[in-house]
Amino acid sequence: MLAILFGYTCIQNIKEAEEHLENEEAVPVEKVKEAGAQMDVVRPGFLRFKKKFPGEVIEDKRKSATLRARFSGVVISTYKLPGDPVRRGETVARIESDQSISNYPIVSPINGYIGRQYVSVGEAVEKGEPIYDVLNLSSVWIRALAYPHLVKGIKKGMIVEIIRETSEGKRILKGEVLSVSPEADEETRLLPFIVSVKNDGTLRPGMFVDVLVKDSIKVNLMVPKEAVHILEGDTVVFRKEKDVVVPVKVSLGRMGDERYEVISGLKVGDTVFTHNSFVIKAEIEKKEWEGEGHGH
């Protein structure tokens, strides 16, 4: 019984090959290989994506501090300017309290640099009013914005790339997604997400950068983009059948950076032509132009 089935299968394969040879759409494999066409095997795998989002550098809120007046009074001394370094425990200003004739110091709780200075000498301040911002820029945050339909692939803990154009060329740093906001930005209506980046000394709050997110999705079948063509309005790939190449109508799903998901028309193990496969399309269209025609 197995021998009969095997013999039947062989006859069918031979018959199919003969039909393709007679088919005006069929193109000899050797001919297209000589023209530089290359092949690939249809298989399951991962579609890979790259998405770029605009972002702004902001201070790392875990490593910054706003120094405030503990009591209302008058500023009698300021010892720092924006950009000055400051040490933890260092006095950066003094305020004369309204409650007594004594004054009290404003002390930095962290090491870093003075960011914004809110007051000047002689200015009256209320309790809780900001005096200085102190920033530690050893790491910074990137506040990036994404369209809602693109946020799905962005997850906490994901490693992303931070890209900044400089006069010396493109600079790329690695960052980690800390959080994805559930609420849209009030102005843009886009969804913010925060990325933490170890600063190489070039990132400053207020700078604009791009955040590159790489993601992948597992699919059952995929083919390289260069294998896909439009032939007489149909989406096709060129499949190797014995010694000939024939167009096969396919239905495509999701698109990655380099490959398409295949929904129907192919199976695992099929061999398709990829690089320079346009020569096959040109050969088929040439036959049609010469009057041989073709049909699906």
Give a structural overview.
By secondary structure, this protein is mainly beta. It has three domains: 23-49 and 218-289, conserved putative lor/sdh protein from methanococcus maripaludis s2 fold, CATH 2.40.420.20; 66-133, OB fold (Dihydrolipoamide Acetyltransferase, E2P) (Beta Barrel); 138-217, Elongation Factor Tu (Ef-tu), domain 3. The chain is built from three helices and 22 strands. Strands 3-12-15-14-13-16 form a six-stranded antiparallel beta barrel. Strand 13 and strand 14 (169-180) form a beta hairpin. The chain is rod-shaped. The two termini are 35 Å apart. The relative contact order is 0.21. Mean pLDDT is 87; it is low at 1-22.
Mean pLDDT: 87
**Helix and strand element order:** HEHEEEEEEEEEEEEEEEEEEEEEH
Query: CATH topology of the largest domain, which one?
Result: conserved putative lor/sdh protein from methanococcus maripaludis s2 fold
The CATH architecture designation of the largest domain is Beta Barrel
Q: Enumerate how many helices there are, as a single number.
A: 3
